[in-house]
Amino acid sequence: MKTAIKILLIITTSIIAMCFSFIYYAFSKPPRNIETEIPSFIMDAYDLHTEFSYFQETSTHKYANNVVQISGTITEIVQSEKNVTITLVDIKKGIDCTLSKKTIENNQDLINDLIPGDPICLKGKCDGVDMIMGVVLTNCFICN
Amino acid sequence: MLRTLIIITAICFCNINLQSQKLITKSGEIDINIDASLFSFIGHNKKVASIIDLETGEIVISTLIRSFAFKKAILEEQFNDNFVESEQFPSSVFIGRIVDYTSYDLSSDGRYNIIIEGKLNLHGVTKYIKEKASVTVTDNILSAEACFNLSADSYDIKFEKDYLNTIDDNIGITVNLLYKPYASN
What is the ipTM of this complex? Predict the structure, then answer.
């Protein structure tokens, strides 16, 4: 009888511990790490821009919330206190790529040397297409 | 020939003049705060675009819902998948104007308390809003900020039943925009 109670107690305690572990894991899990994530799409920046220009809705469903790696030519680079934004394809409404905080911290010299016309490869999370910014990629990392 | 040249020059001049009357930002910020009894959904979006026309006081603000970042993955998932359904409604746009715009001289340095009104589209619902904001002009650099609440229910944002009694209907919104001349952006 005592053994049965012991076993029951162990099982109950284990289940409670597992529940708490799961809840703790779920609530403490940090946001996705774009740097280590394998890109869902690897493509030319011009092709991504063209696809969004002609098929906005289907492209949004296809690319939004996915990690996309693009290669292209810089048309503009804007540095502010907090952000570095690199625009590809078109200066007005091209592909707007905001570098991650980590990329800015680790590549400050490289970023300072970048000028329009330079080729670049960036990996970031595609957020969709905006009426002013164009295609938006956030949390971007410079590919090796 | 000379007449044509004068007309083309005049059109180009007018175009440059008009462009210089507009200001733009592509790196504005919006913070949102949804209070719940156990925790708060605090999201930060650094990809907010806006254009303001200094001639008319008209203003457009747009952002993508997916650009909101949260400290915890579970909050980001809940926000995107259950609250604002960002896959179905990927963007939010405000189109409006500064009320009584001609009474402000935004060419002079200073802080101006203004009222903006217009239509806000969020979660597929468009509602008229009228909120207080402030504009600061320093050395021809214009920045704007606003802090207000939105009712989740009025934008058809339904919290899950589990959260129904624990999440506040008011969504706290803080907007910060730092503009640059349109032509140089």
Answer: 0.84
